[in-house]
Amino acid sequence: MRSRTWLPVCCATLACCLSGSPSEAQTRVRARDLGIPFDATPGPLNAITDVAGVEVGHATLIEGVGPLEVGVGPIRTGVTTILPRGKDSADPVFAGWFTLNGNGEMTGTTWVEESGFLEGPIAITNTHSVGTVRDAVIGWQARRGVMLQPWSLPVVAETYDGGLNDINGFHVKARHVVQALEASVSGPVDEGNVGGGTGMVCYRFKGGIGTASRRLDGAAGGYSVGVLVQANFGSREQLRIAGVPVGREIPLTEAARAAQGLDAADAEDVGSIIIVLATDAPLLPHQLKRLARRASMGIARTGGTSSNFSGDIFIAFSTANPGAATGSAPVRLTMAPNGELNPLFGATVEAIEEAIVNALVAADTMTGIDGRTVEALPHDRVRTLLQRYNRLADRP
């Protein structure tokens, strides 16, 4: 039996080790660095953490090579956490959720739908670790005394990483969830092969975690919209970047199909995408559900069609209206008029498109179980295609 060495990689560690050293998240190439053109203006970090108060953490588990030995490895998985008001706040946020295709899981959403509030963090992991992560989040909340009710119904979502990871080995443990929660920070967000996205595949390139944001101008309220995706969906021929049919131009070869462990009968579009949307705009739950629905259009911009085998589930929350869930007296709320939501809808679609491409650009080639290898999106070929289609933007 192989010796087991856990390699947890968390946001705080990569970002600065609490000492101000440069972050991989700040130096890794992102989609805009390749000259991929995107609409509208991002926030300073172009990340979900451009919404003030939001924190993100990852625990990344990578260990072992060679043939699959269930319970031993190889291991290519992890967990990602998003805390709407940070780990030191117990104040719920208004939220709404939407499922485009339900072949997946996001726990806690019946209470989100009923109450209109998200109470606590959101966590994303692999399909067979949802129960472990849910229980660990409850334990973390109980120890900190931050539950609004005597019980907790946390939001935990998943996508399937069994193509690269020993998914039935159940390698995500409670301690890794706590690591991600405690390491959650504001600031740059690591992307690609990290956290819950470690073993994910997108458009049959290596996928994973991606993030982006948009900042509205003053006339539209000056609000921020930030998104984080765990991208694990799509067939190769579907992929479009800035309107360019990248997937058809870089087709999945027989060699690449074999390297990924696919045979001719395999359906290629069998994955999922989880999307978390954050905003500081004063939106109520029904409006946040409307925002979550627009995530579908961001996926479509990159070519996704939401297959039968896909779990495409989205949740949106607003950090406005603090204190709305506490107390026994009537609460005064602010709400953006429905007629003024169009800029927020547009920002949602634009940010999701960019976050998916950021996940692809950030991800590295990975070899997992049984020597299966998923290649990363080739940056140089993407730039060449953008130039050929007259879509290449000047680098920022």
In short:
By secondary structure, this protein is α+β, with helices and mostly antiparallel strands. Helices cover 25% and strands 20% of the residues.
Molecular structure report:
By secondary structure, the protein is α+β, with helices and mostly antiparallel strands. The chain has one domain (29-324, 332-384): L-amino peptidase D-ALA esterase/amidase (4-Layer Sandwich), CATH 3.60.70.12. It is built from 11 helices and 14 strands. The strands form 4 sheets. It has a 6-stranded mixed sheet. The longest helix has 21 residues, at 342-362. The radius of gyration is 20 Å and the shape is globular. Residues 1-26 have low confidence and may be disordered.
Number of helices: 11
Structural class: alpha+beta
Gap from first CA to last CA: 50 Å
Number of domains: 1
Radius of gyration: 20 Å
- What is the CATH architecture annotation? 4-Layer Sandwich
Q: For the largest sheet, list the strands in their spatial order.
A: 4-3-12-11-10-9
Unreliable spans:
1-26
